[in-house]
Write a structure and sequence with these properties.
Enzyme class: transferase
CATH architecture of the largest domain: Alpha-beta prism
Number of strands: 24
Strand content: 25-35%
CATH superfamily of the largest domain: Enolpyruvate transferase domain
EC number: 2.5.1.19
CATH topology of the largest domain: UDP-n-acetylglucosamine1-carboxyvinyl-transferase, Chain
CATH class of the largest domain: Alpha Beta
Distance between the termini: 10 Å
GO cellular component, one term: cytoplasm
Structural class: alpha/beta
Largest sheet: 5 strands, mixed
Keywords: Amino-acid biosynthesis, Aromatic amino acid biosynthesis, Cytoplasm, Transferase
Helix content: 25-40%
Number of helices: 12
Shape: globular
Number of domains: 2
GO molecular function, one term: 3-phosphoshikimate 1-carboxyvinyltransferase activity
Amino acid sequence: MSQSSQHWIASAGQPLRGTLEIPGDKSVSHRAVMFAALADGVSTIDGFLEGEDTRATAAIFERLGVRIETPTASRRIVHGVGVDGLRPADGPLDCGNAGTGMRLLAGLLAGQAFDSVLVGDASLSKRPMRRVTVPLAQMGARIDTGADGTPPLRIHGGQKLRGIDYTLPVASAQVKSALLLAGLYAEGGTSVAEPHPTRDYTERMLAAFGVDIEFSPGYARLRGGQRLRATDIAVPADFSSAAFFLVAASIVPGSELRLRQVGLNPRRTGLLHALRLMGADITEENPSTHGGEPVADLVVRHAPLRGIEVPEALVPDMIDEFPALFVAAACAEGPTVVRGAAELRVKESDRLAAMASGLRTLGLQVDETPDGATIHPGQLHGGTIESQHDHRIAMSFAVAGQRSDAQVRINDTATVATSFPGFDLLARGCGFGLAAG
C-alpha cells in the first residue's frame, strides 16, 4: 500500500511495538528553507520533511531565484541570496495545503520590490487570511484577498514598510511570524505581543541565523534592516506527527513504542502534558538540543487513561494535536472537557465538528460547544469517516480504528502526504491494523 491510497480501512491490530523514526518537523522545515534562502551563504538542512507542504515552500523559493540542491532524501543545500536577493516569479506561487507557508510568505513577500500572487489548494483557499493581511497593512503592505478574506493573496511590491507594535487579538504563531518577517524589511522596530504564548520556532531560528531578536513567552521584537548568516540546521522529529503514536500506544493494551529524537519545543507539547494528566505512561530519554530546539526520545507504554478537563492554559500549545486527543478521550474512563479551542474551527477543516461527527459515527456521544466539546467515552464501533480532506482527521481515525470492534473506513486520505508521508507504512510496521480501502 502506498501513501497515495485514497481510502484506508482501520481495524484492531497487534500491540504496538518498536522504535520509530518520525519524519522531520513541518514547522521547522518550512522556516529552515525560508531563512536559508534569505541568508548570505550556503546552508545545509538535515531532517527536512519530505512532505507536500514543505516541498511546495522549497519550490516557491526556487521560483524566486534560490538554488536548492537535494543530494539525498531529507537533505537540502540552500544557496542563500540574501534578504534583498529574491527575484520575481513568472506566475502565481502555489503553497499547496500549507497555511504556514502562505502566511509566512505573505509577510516576507510584502517587503519585496516585486509583485507576487500566493495560491493554494481547495482547502487552503477557504482559510482566513485577514488575520495576517490586516496587521501587515498597518505596516504599509498592500495585499488583496478574495471577497471573504481568503486566498489568493495578491501582494503588491515596492511598498515602504514601517515597524509597528502589534498585539494579536488571537494567539497565532503563523501571524506573529509573518509580522516578524515583514519587520526585517521595515523601517524601525517591530514587536508582537500575544494573549497566550505560541510556538517560538521563528524567533529561535532567526537567532540561529544571526538576527538580533528579543523574545520571551508571548512577546518578540526585532529591528528592520538586518541580514541573515547561513547556518546548518538539524530538523527534529515532528511532535505533531509523533502525537498519533503517543495516543495509539497509550490506548492499545500491551503496547510499547520508542519515538526517536522528537522535538519538544515547550510551546508545542501541550498534548504531552494533557496525556500525562490523563494517566499516560510517557518518559523522556536521551535529551539533547538540535538547532536551538530541545529534543528527546519518547518512550510510551499502554496505560489506562481517565477523562479530564483540559486546562485552557495548554490549549495554545496543542492546537494541532486536538484530533489525536479526542481519540484518547474516547478511550478514557470518564468524560473529557475541552474549552477555549475555537481556533480548531479554522484549521484545514473545522476540526471540532469533524472529530465530533466522526466519533458520533463510531457510536460515541460528543457534546459540541462553540469553542470546544465534551467527549463521553465508550466502545468504538465501525463506520465510515469523512476526513474532510484533513490529514490530522484521517490519521486520528486510523488510531481510533485500533480500538474499534469493527472496521473503520476513512475516506480521502491522500492529504496525509502533506505532513506525514509514509504514515500508513510506519503504522503497519509497528502493529496497526491499516489497509488500503
